[in-house]
Write a structure and sequence with these properties.
The structure is a single chain. 42% of the residues lie in helices and 15% in strands. The two termini are 16 Å apart.
């Protein structure tokens, strides 16, 4: 297979999507498929043995940002220019399949335009819902434009991939049965080779809980902190034994500030137990996971949440116990429970406190994880699934 991969965020820039593709492409190469990559010119130079081409980021002058119609025209022209840059690569490298890895969603749009103009089979990947994303509510004008673009991407795709069934069903329920049949689920992945053995000092008596990643207004640690506070009230002697690390807990890019996080911690009188640490590199975040006793994943309390965080999949790779705070029957809850761990809805405070009591008193009793489930998220497994989809499409194309 000669693959064209439109992944506009790639290493060394640190973004969730670049971290993901940074695990995927080396495995593609190990499994015998070196793709042609197209990425943003601001990502820097990735030390990867694959042909890489750079494109500019879409930019609108500040004075024009308040004129939606002008923005729409400029973006359309941007798409056309990028497509014209990429089309010669398809012929030069004899590309047999185009794969777009969103976010950003413009990679899916450009992939769909390339399919429309060249006829080369096209697979789109939605890491998150687009039109149906509950985090991103916009004005009616923008919503209509987003829906129109999503419809175009879905219609042009030979296969539409999602990270979980809830996201797939949420997005695809708007479309015909014929289009729904093109949708499949391939989750995000972890790479065992990137983890290092725990360097936690054996003399350290602390039980370490860690949450890796930024908080948001809709997704913050209040419920977890309340549970800790109740735990310490009922078992005062364990307060000095517990440490919580919020790694990258505050970010200038989110709507939940460092001041808000500190205030929340003070509200529950937990300042002595909690470390707020700055954002770290991806590999350093894996070290924090490996050095922890328990890892905490928190979802926003959205009904029918469609998200399966990539950070959760990294947690799975660390082989450490996971506690999830997430709506019942969410992708996160289903994943964690299937592994053999526990998840708690926002109305289950007492159950979470009871669970924490049990675990801090029996921390040496490890929970048995279902390895077959864990293996499902390994990068070699997800790559095999992805390549099977590619092969099936090309087989149909050639018959």
């Amino acid at each position: 297979m000669n693959l064209l991969c439109l992944s506009f965020w790639t290493p060394p820039v640190v973004r969730p999507q670049s971290i993901l593709i940074g695990k995927m492409i080396p495995e593609w190469i190990r499994q015998g498929n070196t793709p042609v990559l197209v990425t943003y010119d601001i990502c820097g130079d990735w030390d990867i043995d694959a042909p890489t081409y750079k494109i500019p980021v879409f930019y609108v002058p500040k004075m024009l940002k308040r004129i939606p119609y002008i923005q729409k025209i400029l973006r359309k022209k941007y798409y056309e220019n990028i497509v014209n840059q990429i089309k010669p690569l398809i012929k030069e490298h004899n590309i047999s399949l185009i794969f777009s890895f969103a976010n950003p969603q413009e990679s899916n749009v450009i992939g769909a335009m390339l399919k429309e103009q060249t006829g080369v089979p096209f697979v789109s990947y939605f890491s998150d819902p687009w039109y149906d994303n509950p985090y991103k509510r916009t004005c009616s004008f923008k919503n209509k434009d987003i829906l129109k673009k999503e419809q175009f991407v879905i219609s042009q795709s030979d296969r539409v991939l999602f990270t979980n069934n809830t996201a797939k069903d949420l997005v695809m329920k708007k479309y015909s049965v014929e289009l729904q049949e093109k949708s499949k689920v391939i989750p995000h992945c972890y790479d065992d080779a990137l983890y290092i053995s725990s360097k936690k000092n054996n003399k350290c008596k602390k039980i370490i809980f860690s949450h890796i990643g930024a908080f948001y207004k809709q997704r913050n640690p209040k419920f977890f902190l309340e549970a800790l506070s109740e735990l310490f009230k009922s078992l005062p002697e364990v307060k000095k034994l517990v440490r919580v690390d919020f790694v990258g807990g505050s970010s200038k890019y989110t709507n939940f500030s460092l001041k808000q996080l500190e205030q929340l911690i003070d509200n529950f009188d937990l300042r002595d137990n909690i470390n707020i640490l700055p954002s770290v590199s991806y590999k350093e975040s894996l070290r924090y996971m490996s050095d922890s006793d328990m890892l905490v994943v928190i979802d926003a309390p959205f009904k029918h949440s469609p998200f399966l965080p990539s950070k959760l999949i990294d947690y799975i790779g660390s082989k450490k116990e996971i506690i999830a705070i997430t709506p019942n029957d969410s992708p996160t809850a289903n994943c964690v429970q299937e592994l053999g761990y526990s998840s708690f809805d926002y109305n289950q405070l007492n159950q979470l406190v009871s669970y924490l009591k049990n675990r801090v008193q029996c921390i040496d009793q490890q929970i048995v994880v279902k390895e077959a489930v864990r293996h499902r998220y390994a990068v070699h497994s997800t790559t095999e699934q992805l390549f099977k989809e590619f092969s099936d499409i090309l087989h149909l194309e050639n018959n």
